[in-house]
Design goal:
Length: 153
Amino acid sequence: MTWFDVKTVASGVTAFMEPGHFEEVISYLVAGRERAALIDTGLGIGDMSAEVRRITSLPVIVVNTHAHWDHRGENYKYANIAIHHLEAANLDRLVGSEQLAAQAAPAKFTRRTPPGFWPAQWQIFPSPATSLRCSPAIPITPALSTPMSRARA
C-alpha cells in the first residue's frame, strides 16, 4: 500500500488523496498542453513529486490555495509556487517538528507511513512564493469549465 490514493477525476485532472492521516488532504494535478498546475502539495509525508512525475513530464507550477501546513508539505521541491499575495509571507516560515507534534501522534495516522518518514522529525520547510496572484486565473490550457465559471459567463 502506498501513502497516496491516486485517482483520475476528469480528463487531465488527477487527485492525490492522503487518507492515512486524520487531515485527509486532497491535492490536484491539472495538466494542460504546455504545463501543469499542482493545486497544493499535501502533508509532506509521502513523495507526491514522484507521483506527479509518473503522471506528467510537463513543467509544474504549484498553486497553493492557502499557506496552512497541510497544503504546502512538498512546496520546497518545486521552483514555481503561486499563492494569493495575502498568504505569501506564511510560505516563508518553517513549521517545525515541535509545532507538528500533535499532528504526528500515532492516533492521527490510519495507515502505515512511508519508509523514511519519521513523525518525530516531521517538518514543513519554507518555500517562498515565486508568483503572487490576486485573481483566480492561472494560465494553463485547456481551461476547465466549472460551475462557477459557467455562472460568470
